[in-house]
UniProtKB/TrEMBL annotation:
Gene that produces this protein: ddpX
Protein name: D-alanyl-D-alanine dipeptidase
Any one GO BP annotation for this protein: cell wall organization
Cofactor dependency: Zn(2+)
Positions annotated to bind Zn(2+): H92, D99, H159
Keywords noted in UniProt: Cell wall biogenesis/degradation, Dipeptidase, Hydrolase, Metal-binding, Metalloprotease, Protease, Zinc
Cofactor notes: Binds 1 zinc ion per subunit.
């Protein structure tokens, strides 16, 4: 069962796939909603509390992604290392992954050296060709998320998933509380 993330969870939201400001250039979701499995929500809230101790907050770009939306991304991206094959389910369609960034006390995103969903080598963790402040910010996000029990995807600084993500079934849009996204 998926639970909806809200501002009461201490999070900010910029659900990119409900807008045209994403790598497809068009909205994929009909409404800006972020949902996760209860365990993932608890771990994300923990990461948010850790960030708050440093005067920072988490901003969520994406969480649960129905299989239908996974197909839209699959068709839009040529470098398939940046999108999971919908036939295998991926981890976003399981409600066990989140795409996010860190923001300061003013709500401004910390520089990460590459944009969200940027299909480029510089989006990976551990790259040396980004500014030092962006390297520190990525390391900080990685540390916060890891401390809260998340795993990361090495090619995307913004993507985190439960270690047990593949133990959960992939879901389609009819699984969304309140109707399809």
């Amino acid at each position: 069962m998926l639970v909806t993330l809200t501002a009461a969870d201490g999070l900010l939201f910029d659900i990119r796939y409900a807008t045209s400001d994403n790598l497809t250039g068009r909205p994929i979701y009909t409404r800006p909603v972020a949902m996760l499995l209860p365990e993932a929500r608890d771990r994300l809230r923990h990461a948010g509390r850790l960030a708050a101790q440093l005067g920072l907050r988490l901003k969520v770009y994406d969480a649960f992604r129905p299989i239908e939306a996974q197909w839209a991304l699959w068709h839009a991206v040529t470098d398939k290392r940046f999108v999971a094959d919908p036939r295998a389910g991926g981890v976003h369609p399981r409600g066990a992954a989140v795409d996010l960034t860190l923001v300061d006390s003013n709500g401004d995103e910390l520089p990460m050296g590459a944009g969200f969903d940027e299909i480029a080598a510089r989006s990976a963790h551990g790259v040396a060709d980004i500014p030092a402040d962006a390297q520190r910010n990525r390391a900080l996000l990685l540390g916060l998320m890891t401390a809260a029990g998340w795993d990361h995807y090495r090619l995307e600084w913004w993507h985190y998933q439960l270690h047990t993500a593949r133990n959960h079934p992939p879901l389609n849009a009819t699984a969304v509380p309140g109707g399809p996204m």
